[in-house]
Amino acid sequence: MRIPSGFLLGAATASYQIEGAVAEDGRGPSIWDTFCRTPGRVHDGDTGDVADDHYHRLEQDLDLMARLGLEAYRFSVAWPRVVPDGRGAVNRRGLDFYSRLVDGLLQRGIRPVATLYHWDLPQALQDRGGWLERDTASALADYAAVVADELGDRVHTWTTLNEPWCSAYLGHGNGVHAPGLVGRVEPLVAVHHLNLAHGLAVQALRARVVADAQVSLTLNLHVFRPDGPTGRDALRKVESLANEVFLGPVLEGRYPDAVLETTRDVTDWAFVRDGDLAQIHQPLDVLGVNYYNTNRVRLWDGTGARQQSDGHGRSAGSAWPGAEDVEFLEQPGPHTEMGWNIDPAGLTELLTGLHARFPELPLLITENGAAFPDTVADDGRVHDDDRVDYVRRHLRAVLDAVDAGADVRGYFLWSLMDNFEWAYGYSKRFGIVRVDYDTLERTPKDSALWYADLIRSRDLGT
Ligand code: FCB
C-alpha cells in the first residue's frame, strides 16, 4: 500500500509534556505546574519540571528526528515561555528557543507545524478566571500575534488550539485536567471562550503569516457507536457536546440545535454575545484530527451502577453536562495501556464522514498512537510490535479514507518520544523513542525503526 505523494509522515509532541526547564530563561508558571503541585491530582506526584529535558537537548532531539527521516514535526509553543504573565511583556528568550527549533527543523528539511495552545495556560490568566473569563480569548489572540511576528516567515502550518474538548470538559467538568474545576455550566462557558479564542487567533495569524500559510484547529472528534434501543438518543447528546459544539460554530457559524437541546437544563448560552459567531467562523485551510479510540453509548435505565468507561478517568464531576444519563460501556478488547479500545475502522469512518460534510476542507491527522507497557529487552531494545501494529493499522485506515475520496494531507504519530502524559504522569509511554527517566537517554524503539523504514520506502506493505 503506497503512501500518496505529498502526504506528510511526521511525529508530534507538546511543550509541557517534553520541555522541562519550567523556571528557566524567564518562563512563567502555567496551570499545569500548579496542578502537578496539588496533591492527588497527577499520578505519583509527577511534574513537568524536567520531563524529557527537551529544552536543553534541542539539538540532540533535532538530530534524532533527522535520523528517523521525519518529514514534518508538530510541536507546541508554551504560552508562559513567550508571555510569562499571559498578557503584556514578551520574553525574548522564550521566543528565541522556538526560533532555534524552527531553524533547526528547516535546516534538516523537516517541516514545522506549530500549535499555539496545547493546554499550558499561564497561571496569571487562571488567577483572573482562565477560560471562564472572556478576556482570555483576546489574550490568546495577542499571544498568537507575538508568535506569528516571530515565526510567521518560517512556519507554514499553524494550529490554534489542541483539543479544546479536553481544556473545557476535563479542565472544568470532571476536573481531571488543569485547572481541575468541577462544574456543569463552566465547561460550556470554557467551550465558547475557547471557540472565540480560536477565531481571534486565526485572524491574528492571517494578518501576519506568509500568504500561503495553512491555518488549522485540532479537534479530538469522538466516534460513538450506539448500543441498543436508546443508543441513538445517547449518541445525539454526546456527539453534540463532543463534536458539534466545535464544528458548528467554527465551520458553520452557529451552535446547532442538538447542542442547545442537550444543554437545556444547564445553560441558556447567554454568555454568547452578538457578533461572537462571526468572529469564530473563520475560513480554515485544514482541520487537524486527533484519533485514538471509539466509545459505545446508550441511555442509563436508572438501575444498577452506571457504566462510565469514557476513557478519561473517574472523578466527582462529569465531563458530559446535560448528558449525565449517558452510559459509556466497556468495549471489547484489545485495549492499549490507557484502557482505550483499538478500532481503526472508526478513523476511516470519521474521515469519510468529515469529507462528506465538508468536502472542501483538507484534513490532517495531527495525533494518533498508543501507550503500551514497553520493556527493555536483553539486547537493550524495545520490541514494541503492538505499537507497530497499531500505527500500521491506523495508517491503513487513513489510506482507506483517502481511497474513498477524503482529502487527508498527512499523519503525525503521537508521540516522537515518551513524555509526561498529563494526569497519568510518566506511567504511560506513547513514544516511538524510549526515554529513560533516570538518565534521560533516548533509545529508538522498534516502532521508530519501522517508521523510519516506512518513510524511506513510503510503502506500508499489504
Ligand atoms: C491527546 C493529547 C496529547 C496526548 C495524547 C495521548 O489527548 O493531545 O497531548 O496526551 O492525548
Report on this model:
A hairpin with a 6-residue loop joins strand 12 (433-435) and strand 13. The chain has a single domain (8-457), classed as Alpha-Beta Barrel (TIM Barrel), CATH 3.20.20. It has helices at 15-18, 31-36, 58-68, 79-82, 92-107, 123-127, 135-151, 164-172, 185-206, 231-252, 257-262, 276-280, 344-357, 385-403, 446-457, and strands spanning 8-12, 72-76, 111-117, 157-162, 214-219, 224-226, 286-290, 295-299, 326-329, 363-368, 408-414, 433-435, 442-444. It is of the alpha/beta class. 37% of the residues lie in helices and 14% in strands.
Radius of gyration: 21 Å
Query: What would CATH call the homologous superfamily?
Result: Glycosidases
Which CATH class?
A: Alpha Beta
The CATH architecture name reads Alpha-Beta Barrel
Topology overview:
Layout: E1 8-12, H1 15-18, H2 31-36, H3 58-68, E2 72-76, H4 79-82, H5 92-107, E3 111-117, H6 123-127, H7 135-151, E4 157-162, H8 164-172, H9 185-206, E5 214-219, E6 224-226, H10 231-252, H11 257-262, H12 276-280, E7 286-290, E8 295-299, E9 326-329, H13 344-357, E10 363-368, H14 385-403, E11 408-414, E12 433-435, E13 442-444, H15 446-457
Parallel strand pairs: 1-2, 1-11, 2-3, 3-4, 4-5, 5-7, 6-8, 7-10, 10-11
Antiparallel strand pairs: 8-9, 12-13
Helix pairs in contact: 7-9, 8-9, 9-10, 13-14
The structure holds beta-D-fucopyranose.
